[in-house]
Write the structure tokens for this entry.
Amino acid sequence: MPEPTPVTIECTVNGRLHRWQSPPGATLLEALREAHVRGPKLVCGTGDCCACGVMLNGRSVNSCCTLAAQAAGATVLTVEGLAEDGQLHPLQAAFLETGAAQCGFCTPGLLIRAYALLQAQPDPDEAAVRVALGGNICRCTGYVKPVEAVLEAARRMRAAAADATRQGSVEPGLPASDSALR
Amino acid sequence: MSTRTPPRSAPPGAPGVAPPLRVVGRGLPRVDGRALVTGSPVYTADMDVPDMLHGKILHSPLAHARIVAIDTGAARALPGVRAVLTHLDVPAILHATAGQPFPELSPYDTRLLDPHLRYVGDWVALVAAESEAIAEAALALIKVTYQELPAVFDPVEAMRDGAPKLHEPDVAHPLFERSPGPTYDARHNIAGHEEIWRGADFATTMAAADHIVTGTYHTPRIAHCALEPHVAIAHADGYDRLNVWSSTQVPYHTRRQLARVLQWPVSRIRVIKLRVGGGFGGKQEMVLEPAVAVLAMATGRPVRILYSRQEEFAASRVRHPMTIHMRSGVASDGTLLALEMRVISDTGAYGGHGLTVAQGAGHKTLCLYRARAYHFVADAVYTNSPVSGAMRGYGAPQGYFALESHMDEIAARLGLDPLDFRRRNHVRRGDYDPINLDSSSGAPRSQRHFRSCALPECLTRGAEAIGWDLPFDRGQGVVRRGRGLATAMQGSGVAGSELGGASIKMNEDGSFNVMTGATDIGQGSDTVLAQIAAETLGVGLDKIIMHSSDTDIDVFDYGSYASSTTFVTGTGVRLAAEAVRDQILAVAARMTGCPAADLHLEDGRVHAAGGPLGLTLAEVALETLYGSRRQQIMASGHASCHDSPPPFHAQFVEIAVDCETGQIRVERSVNAIDMGRAINPRLASGQVEGAIAMGLGFALSEELLMDERGQVRNPAFVDYKVLSCLDMPAMTTILVDDPEPTGPFGAKSCGEVPINTPAPAVANALFDALGIRVRSLPITAEKVLAALRARDSAPTGPVAHPGGPFAPQDGARHQSVPGGPGPGS
Amino acid sequence: MLRIDAYHRPATLDLALALMTEGRTVVAGGTDLLVNPRYLVGVTEVVDLGDLPLDFVEVEPDLIRIGANATMARVAASPEVRALADGIVSRGAAVCGSPNIRNMATLVGNVASALPSSDTPPPLLVLGARVVLRSRSATRRLALEEFFLGPAVSARRPDELVESVEIPRPRPGTRGGFYKVKRTADDIAIVNSAACLCVEEGRIAFARVVVGAVAPVPLGIAAAEQHLLGRQPSEEVLAEAGRLAAAAARPITDQRATAEHRRHLAGVCATRALRQAAGLDPHGAELEHA
């Protein structure tokens, strides 16, 4: 086989600078997992289940049908980057408390999708949450508790934001809701 | 129970009053949840194993063939390839891969690599290489000459004289030779056959019936679609032992079966289950482990095989497709007299789980109803199709689709409300299982005894929640609505078989390591067992450290199947915890001078009748580890399962049907389950909701489509349609509390029973909406439209009883789609 | 992993055009390219358009131009595109795949792949959209009808790339409808349909009907359009147009549906799209698909 021309890719993943030497056809999912970022999961490899979901320059995408090279110069956020300073993101806490993770394999993709939703729409109703999660396949939960968890997390995040506004500062440990980097 | 001390239900000094439960019965977060929500690398494919090779499997392109010649030279010569193995290189030991206790109730018809290939996807050769890409390239370089053989895909065809034969008559089947009843007949491709009669004389009872109702039902080949594919890593370590990390439901069965395949002693093999991303029965099986084992041995390096999603669909395991003929005799007043089920189950190319799932279709279902006579016939048939295996429900989803549809058809014929008809005929608390007898002797003496049964309450509360007795507008226009119900029972473990438990040791801070072979595959068994231990030891969940599923360390467990873990292993855990508690109290008695009988544990402290003694568990532990009379506080406990108390479930659904497109939308579902007592209501309701979703997929959209050459046409999510959250009905789940006397803290099971009801409930709701009966799954739009066309074009003829509140409003005649005769024939 | 030998990421359109040749294919979103092996037949190199300034939705007096890198999500949310004919192009974009897919997939990519069951071609066709094809030597515009030649076959030459899609503004008073039938909520179309009507003084002055997934290309139903012209948009007239659509359909049987079912659905979808375009209420709340 002729050797493909490798591509050098520099990107920021969860706040850390990465530099990859990848085959030109490597997917972003493959490159992330090769770089020990194991949160995004390989489930179908065909963009049909969203378990590989990551944030790429502020939008949630399926990393299995994105070339790693497309992420050159980009900012990537995976589930591992949601917690700050060891404190779980409200979505993660809500998933834990609600029982929204059973086998957990779809959980990273659900969290990223929910994260993207709440960035754009801090106050979704249940129908909007279901549309947002409509591409994520889960085989364990019947989707009931994940939807509940997203609504609960949204409530908590709105309450925290309202508190912060009242107090005139942003609480440490909560992600800034309009940060373009996340 | 085999090892059991009388449980102490009340603290001494408070006679007759059970203390309130503090941990059991609460919806506490999973003990392992944090790793899941943070994306921690806890699954098998997340492991970094130094020097690991990647394995790939060459699959047969033909449904039935023999390997005439196989040339691996070019593959082996490819740079980066470290091993290429064919049937000439590996042990040829016949074995079963079904995750069942020894001796398996499955034929030993499988070889690791067999020159006789029996389905598209069967294994031809194994490759290990430095990367997946190189391994795949090597597959393409293996030159195989196949002699194609005639194939058979239809089970009825396969049973005929002269049909292509898949297996040799001398395939060993240890249990079949011994016990009466089931038979194996390779000449007719029968992997298992059973015929049983129960109760009164069947023919006489049927002859006395006022009405005889028949129907034939079809269920499809479907896939588990666990999000985590099958994956296994094997490594022969420096102690000449084989270590296998596998995404499995049955580490102990796999260890034993690997030993057989490799001809090694069990002591040389260790199987470890890390976190599993779903199993649903597809991993109640030894699948990849033998392949990684022989590749690891051939290369001297760790080898991993990770199935692709396409391989998951086409070359792992599937649910048994079935054709089920129902025939019942009923009295005019609605009493069920004679109940008959005949099953033809397609077990695919190999017979693991073949007989037992076919049996399950009747054994797990017919026992729901009191009839006077029962007749059950089952054939598990070989075809050149993907291998059928265990899948959630284990024959019951297929059986209940037939049975619960059939019950509604009977009710319609008699003009009775389907709910009333069921109430009249269901089994009750105190009944004995009319079908399932002692599995080893077949003698009618030690049947399952339904010591708890809250099905009546499930029906009442479910009916109320859906508004069953309220007026319901079925609509006049393009969109019509209907309601339906279905009921089911399952088991809690396999009666007469099962083993599970734990060993528990105490640490100096008053925490406990609980080591159990029970396999958490996402259902939350680690958490449930931790709650049982914590409750018994009087501590919070934060003091319990679970370790599970390492065959070197943890107490033997049959594995996660048959809804066994809470009931069986939970009892073993409770026994272990009680023994540890007693050791603690003995030490505490020594330390305090109070008699042990006056002491109990609560909130991490030692209490007497009057209150806490100021002695913490940590202080007791320190004394035992470093004080004057040293010991390791530690005990084990195990339980097996003579009985299998059934959970009961009732589901009520409302559907909307678009009569122009044929689309069905399930709008509401009320799920009322009697699982005894939920150890963790949050995990339990999650299991119910997930099982309902899976059952709805079975009902509406899931099917593996095969072409005429035996190939799967839709091995991908784009065309194998799993339901999303947008397809889900609004769900209400009701956990009915009715403690089971033999279960740990009153628990039965819940993981499987809800999957049985969605398909018949939807079919029954469709009949309610439109007067059409679809008897084959999935109930697709095309089938709905075909049934509507048949209904609207039917000539005047015998019409089912027009009365009753559930006859269609417009008086339309009842027609059914291909799959069986209409009611009355 | 794509089996390709090289990846290019040109910084300008000229550099991109210089790379366009046999053996190379473009990637914009990549959600189709990376999962369908058909696109890699004879292809060894990929040209990524991501750095080119093509993610525009440009509004001009007579038309809206959507650039090659504008995502489905962008098109679905764009107020300007939503303002065209009851937003049928946005509605088509909004049901392609899942939210994650729509964040990367591009409308132009959906058009360029020329698949007969895609959701954006029918709305684009009924609005008379054009593709803008650029090569080093020339720029040409093709009506979409001329661009689609067969399943996954388009009029694009190997040295061309589709730079944008242009949607002419419809005549004032034009309304649109779009309906898609699926097996489950997140699905490729079994059949879809888009329609445009312009009703003046109670009579249909302009009508376009297209049905997807029932022919090698998205199918314009000329017979239905001719039937509609000059008539009142009544239930009977629209139902007859639907029957003509069913009769014109040339569907195949595949793993998703039988030809007979698709033919039947062609009529249902066309009628429902037309009823939307005529402003009629859905029949007793027909089950919402799109």
User: Anything to note?
Assistant: Chain C touches chain B at residues 1, 181, 183-188, 255-258, 261, 264-265, 268, 283-287, 289 (CB under 8 Å).
